[in-house]
Amino acid sequence: MPLSDHEQQLLDQLEQQLRSEDPRFARNISETQAVATGPGFSAKRFVLGILIALVGLAATILAISLVSTSMWFIALGVVGFGLMVVGMYWAFSRPGHTHTTQTESKNVGSKSESKGSAGFMSRLEDRWEKRQRGE
Predict the structure, then answer these.
(1) Using H for helix, E for strand and C for coil, what is the string for the chain?
(2) Where are the domains of the chain?
(3) 22-65 pLDDT, tens digit each
């Protein structure tokens, strides 16, 4: 059910007030909504991915059964396995989905871990030097 003009105006006023009072919170909310309303599940993509995975499975089974006749079927088995992996990835991934937020959070985590490990290593070095000096 659509909002009336009065309700839409009130909502716009509340949004402007929120943006002016707490811009960081408003930015976080709008980023969360952009991620949530992004492209979702695609049945066509899912079916195509499953079909690719099934072709890969068939190629792998065929290669396993015929590997005793020729060694070229090992390559067919590897290609079939690759098709299975690609097909399943294609079927279960979201179209247009970017992983920038995940990689950024991983980078932030690795930076904090490296700082912690650098501090740990420097403490170990200090202890080692103290032992060498006999303290």
Answers:
(1) CCCCHHHHHHHHHHHHHHHHHCHHHHHHHHHHHHHHCCCCCCHHHHHHHHHHHHHHHHHHHHHHHHCCCCCHHHHHHHHHHHHHHHHHHHHHCCCCCCCHHHHHHHHHHHHHHHHHHHHHHHHHHHHHHHHHHCC
(2) 1-37, 38-97, 99-135
(3) 888 777 777 665 555 556 677 888 899 999 999 999 999 999 99
